[in-house]
Amino acid sequence: MWTFWRRNKPNQEPARIQTTLKDIEKAVIQFEANLPKNVKRTILVDKDNRINTARLVPYLGGTPIENYYMSTQTYEIFTEKDRLIPHYLDIVQEAVDAYMDDNHKLPILQDCAENRVHYELLMQEYYLKEMPPFPLYITDEEYMLSHTP
Q1: DSSP label at 131?
Q2: How many CB atoms lie within 10 A of CB 122?
Q3: Which candidate in 40, 42, 52, 137 could, as Cys together with 72 as Cys, close a disulfide (CB 3.0–4.6 Å)?
């Protein structure tokens, strides 16, 4: 009787799958739960704020067809159509934090109930080098930024 030994298939590419923003958010949380204590979920994020979804394959069952992006400052996740938001959240959050450390007040527009960030002030004082094309707002929750009022 002949015994045929099965050869291991070479590492195959994971299947390309359709995912939702909620799927990605859940996978990121699961990924972070399995990280060592002092390692944060931001290790998933490339320089352009794109999430390296290859690391999420065990949690998703495949590689997402779409690209997703995450702010390293707020951890908020976005789809391709909103890919610029995390970039601006990150640079403006750093500018706001530095401004508050130096001036002990919020850089917000006067007479604005939503705590809209005062970009011109941050640029005049050299905390911000690039003007976002949309407004950002400072929340009451640890002075984190949001793209919605």
Answers
A1: -
A2: 20
A3: 42
